[in-house]
Amino acid sequence: MSNKPVVLVTRKLPAAVEQKLAESFATILNPDDKLYSTEELLELAAGADAILPCHTEKFPAETIAQLPARVKAIANFSVGVDHVDLEAARQKQVIVTNTPDVLSDATAEIAILLMLGAARRASEGERLVRSQQWKDWSPAFMVGRQITGKRLGILGLGRVGQVVARRARGFEMTVHYHNRTPLHPDQAGNAVYHASVEELLAATDVLSIHCPASPATQGLINSERLAMMHRDAILVNTSRGGVVDDDALVSALQAGDIGAAGLDVFNGEPDSIHPGYRQLDNVFLLPHIGSATVETRDAMGFRAIDNLIAIFNGEEPGDRVA
Length: 322
Ligand code: DGY
Prior knowledge:
- The structure is a single chain.
- With 322 residues, this protein is α/β, with parallel strands linked by helices.
- The protein is 35% helix and 13% strand.
- The chain contains 13 helices and 12 strands.
- (2R)-2,3-dihydroxypropanoic acid binds next to loops.
C-alpha cells in the first residue's frame, strides 16, 4: 500500500503533469475531464489529502466548510483564485496556492491578439471568408484601426500586464497604467502612472485589463467609466469577466461610444455569457484561452506540483495565497 498523500485532480491535466504528480503522490484522476458538481467534488475529496483544481471548480465558504478534515491544501492550476473563498480557507487552515508567472507570456500573447483582432475587425473578416460572402475589395472595405503608436492603458500592471507592456512597445505603443500604488521603474519601465482608473481611461486608446477579480474590482468598468473612454477606444479583457459590467459594455459597443472590444473572459462563461456580445460585429471573442499553450499548461501543472511537494514536506509553498 502506498503511503503517498492522495491528490484529487479535478480536471484532465497534461500527460507529463499527471505523470510527474504520480511520482510523489497517489492520484485520483479525471480521465474523462468531467465537470464535477459540488456534491461529486465533496464525495471525491473524502479520499484526498489535497485537491488540485482549476478555476472551473468553485470553493465558496459553504463548500470549504464541508471539506473533510484530511484535506490540507487546494493547489490551484490557475493564477486566478477568485473561485476560492480565501478567508474561509484560512479559517479552516486549508492552504491555498496558485500558479503565477508561468502563464504571463501566453496570456500576454492573447491580449495582443485581442487588441489586433478587435482593431482590425478579425471576427467580421473571418466570417466573410468562411461564409463565402467576400465578394469584392475596395479602399473602403474592412477598414479598421492600427494599434501601432497608440496609447495602451494597462489596468493592473502586474506580472501579465508587464509582459503585455513589453510586447506593446514592439508596436511603438506608449504605455500608461493604473495600480493602487506606482511601481518601481524596474517594473514599470517608462510606463506613465495614473493615480485613478478614470485618469487612465481618459489617456488610453487601447485598454487592457489585468487586475484580478475581487469585490473591489467587480463591475469596475461600468457605464460611467466607459463614457470616459474615447469613441474609437478598444477594450481588451484577459483577466476575469467580473471586472466588466456587460450591460454597460454591450450598450457602449452598440451605440458606438467605444470602438471595439476583444474579450477572452466573461461573466457567465462558458454558456451564459451576455447574448449581446454574440450579435455585435465590433467584438472579437475567444473562449478563455489565455493560458492555453502546451508550454504553459505543462508549466502550470509543474508549479502546482512544486507547491504540493512543499506543503507535504512541511515547507512553505512558493505560491501561497492563503
Ligand atoms: C488562470 O490561470 O487564472 C486562467 O484564467 C485559467 O484558469
